[in-house]
Amino acid sequence: MVETETFVTDAVAEIGDEIGDADAVIALSGGVDSSVAAALAYEAIGDRLTPVYVDTGLMRKGETAQIEETFAYMESLVVVDAKERFLEALAGVTDPEEKRAVIGEQFIREFEREAREAGADYLVQGTIYPDRIESEGGIKSHHNVGGLPDVVDFEGIVEPVRDLYKDEVREVARALGLDELVAERMPFPGPGLAVRVIGEVTEEKLEVARDACHVVEDELEEYDPWQALAAVVGKATGVKGDNRVHGWIVAVRSVESRDGMTARAQELDWETLQRIQSRITGTNENVARVVYDVTHKPPATIEYE
Ligand code: XMP
Predict the structure, then answer these.
(1) Whether residues 207 and 177 fall in one domain
(2) Pocket of ligand 1 (CB under 6 A)
(3) pLDDT tens sequence across 7-21
(4) Mutate which of 56, 58, 303, 305 for ligand 1 pocket (most atoms within 8 A of beta carbon)
(5) For 182-223, what is each residue's pLDDT tens digit?
(6) Exposure pattern of 24-39 as b/e (b: 16+ CB <10 Å)?
(7) 169 and 232 together in one domain
């Protein structure tokens, strides 16, 4: 990549040329790619860009508040509280791929409504170079905002970071002064916590997964994992006071990886594992046990669904 500052200047000018006097929308996911694309486009066309953040209720602890804070300077920012609609759409859905489909569809519905309301002619997307290679090569489909262009009739699609690799996007994020948390954040799946609870997505399971993921990310920061997470994987018997209780099983996973295609389970020391266990069971009294996942990818995947 050319020098970061030159990239920013050129990208802003190019977006301005492409969009002209028209209006545009972008779906903000909280990830670094869409954050950088939004910041560049906002610099180019100001409030003619409507950044739309859909709060699916499947996000990490504090993530929505952090996104609102990071992008508060964009007056046109739209935050959609869609938590209840997502939970309703997911009720009774247990199959992992069906969950992804339901979430993708609901997301499109939410975004489409906002795009129409904004009267946008252009769609800005945070597609990066590896996304293009993977989609072109058919390696995996992208669940994030798949299919959007077909649904809303846009005049054009603008992809300002389409030639960048992830580490280059992070560099641009830092140059733009985007919050360090956004720039350094570990990858998080589009369907969010829904793929970190096995079976039906319920508010109770989401709460356990959200708190546990927070503990894991916090405790493992010094290990610098490629990705670290916790998932609600089932129920087991535990003991509270004199009683046997049936509580949640939380699986903790921390992996090293270059691109997520393969991964190695990370070796953690016993004290760290015990601290994680005690914080997770201490935060939620309905958790009966915490287990550590030692499986590499393959044969396991990184997420649980
Ligand atoms: P797996 O679980 O397949 O994950 O080993 C590899 C990487 O992809 C992320 N992931 C997803 N990302 N939509 C996404 O945008 C999805 O449906 C999805 N499923 C998994 C996962 O977090 C890891 O970084």
Answers:
(1) no
(2) 100, 143-144, 187, 189-191, 195, 227, 260, 297, 301-303
(3) 999 999 999 999 999
(4) 303
(5) 878 888 999 999 999 999 999 999 999 999 999 999 999 999
(6) bbbbbbbbbbbbbbbb
(7) no
